[in-house]
Structures are given as C-alpha cells and as structure tokens.
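Hey, can you fold this one?
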Amino acid sequence: MMTPKATSVTEAGKPDGYAVPELFRGEVSPDGRTRLAVCAPPERLAVIHRALVEALEAPLSVMYVQRVDRRAGRNLEESGGKPRRYLSVDIPAERVLSVFDRCRTLLYQDGRHQTWVRGAMREQLILEYDGMLFLYPDDLSFRDVLHGLGVREDAKAQAIGDRDYVKVNFQATADPEEARLMAELRLQEYGEG
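Sure. Predicted structure:
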C-alpha cells in the first residue's frame, strides 16, 4: 500500500480511520473562479494527476512551492518565513510528464510542497500538500477526463481537504527527487513567496 501525502487524524494526532475517497466536485474558489476539486486515494493519485496534466494545452509552466526546507528540516511558514517558489515556463508536456514519472515519491507521497502546472490557455492544475487536486476552470473537457477514469462526481462526500485535522507525511527518500525535479525542469526561484 502506498503512503499517502497526508493522513486524517484526531485532535490528538492519531489516525482516525478515514479512507480517502475517489471523487470530484465543482466549486467556486475563494477568489471567485470556477474549479474542480478532485480527491483520490494514494494508489490512484498519480494516474489521475497524469491524465489531467495531459489534458492541459502545451507548452506548460510548472511552479514548485516548497513549504518545508528539506536540508534545514523546518517548515518555512511556521518559522516566520514564506514558502519558496520555483518556476519554469514553456516546457514540452512530454518532458514534464517524464520528470513527474521519475519523481513519483516526491509528488504523490510527500506532503512538504505544492506543484502547480499551467497550460498555454491559462488553465491550471494544483497538486496540494494533502493530495487534493484543484483544476481551473471547471470545464467540460476536464470533467470528461475524470469520467473517463471512472472518477465519480459527488458534491456531498467529504474529501481529505475537508477534514478537521490532517497530518502531512514526509518521505526522506523523496529528497533526491526534489533536486532531480528542480534540475530537470530547470526550476528557478522567484519572488518572495
């Protein structure tokens, strides 16, 4: 069984038995844009993420948001800082998908980051630290991809992102994959977070 990016826990930090469902729902984001929120169990997250990346119009841009400094072992937000953002633009889709395949532990089992992928038409896919996927905008073509994968639409079921307490999982084996992701996608740090 794959380790999830995050686990639902009790207030005391113990696993609460919640099983991550496979579902999606349409939402309006806090900034007023439409989006699809997608929840997937750990064993299906990579397949669903890949299919949604393939649905974006190339060339792609990738932003990697580092929430935890792996070398220092500290959460950047909790230590008074801001997440570090790394960006690369105009990347062929095949290269992005190939690098993502080689960095599977980092992307799909480690919760110390977010990964954003933007298509040429400004459509955007965000893989959150807890394993939730957010796809902007809520578009019929993206719904078709999800239906084709057998992902059910359910506006009422509770997704991992809806849980009160979530423990983010870290994988030390993902540390070299972070360096690989940054090097192979030529991600450059930018902005103040």
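The longest strand covers residues 84-91. Let me know if you want another pass with a different chain boundary.
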